[in-house]
Amino acid sequence: QVQLVESGGGLVQAGDSLRLSCAASLRTFSNYAMGWFRQAPGKDREFVATIGRRVDHTHYAASLKGRITISRENDKKTVYLEMNSLRPEDTAIYYCAADSASLPTTRVYDYDHWGQGTQVTVSS
């Protein structure tokens, strides 16, 4: 049973920073591309960031680039999302996902496994 467990969410103020973590039970974690998505109430799930097998192979949502950083530690089977200068519009449930195809992708349907999500709420 594959498990992705997100943590690090919470209630913060505008301008604050957060680091989300996602611990994976994948046996061959290093072979997976990993992604972060988010979903605000009443909206579709949207792409945030992705990282491939190579740690320098990353891609970010254009609207968030410059405020977020995705990284991974294969020996810990963990992927991170660092978010800075948070805004109220960043309020959403943030989901971690794993793609066995290895290449970073922005498409929801490319991902094979999903976590349960962690809530991020940014107050103004």
What attributes characterize this protein structure?
mainly beta; four-stranded antiparallel beta sheet; 11 strands
Question: What does this protein look like?
Answer:
The structure is a single chain. The protein has strands at 4-7, 10-13, 18-24, 33-39, 46-51, 58-60, 68-73, 78-83, 92-99, 113-114, 118-123. The protein is 0% helix and 48% strand. The strands form two sheets. Strands 2, 4, 5, 6, 9, 10 and 11 form a seven-stranded mixed β-sheet that branches. It starts with a strand and ends with a strand. With 124 residues, the protein is an all-beta fold.
Summarize the structure.
With 124 residues, this protein is mainly β. The protein is 0% helix and 48% strand.
Unreliable sequence segments:
none
Q: Count of helical segments?
A: 0
Main sheet summary: 7 strands, mixed
Instruction: Return the structural class.
Output: mainly beta
Overall mean pLDDT: 95
Order of helices and strands: EEEEEEEEEEE
Could you tell me how far the N terminus lies from the C terminus, measured between alpha carbons in angstroms?
40 Å
Q: State which percent range the strand residues make up.
A: over 45%
Q: How many distinct beta strands?
A: 11
Rg estimate, integer Å: 13 Å
Helix content: under 10%
Shape: globular
List the helices and strands and how they pair.
Elements: E1 4-7, E2 10-13, E3 18-24, E4 33-39, E5 46-51, E6 58-60, E7 68-73, E8 78-83, E9 92-99, E10 113-114, E11 118-123
Parallel strand pairs: 2-11
Antiparallel strand pairs: 1-3, 3-8, 4-5, 4-9, 5-6, 7-8, 9-10, 9-11
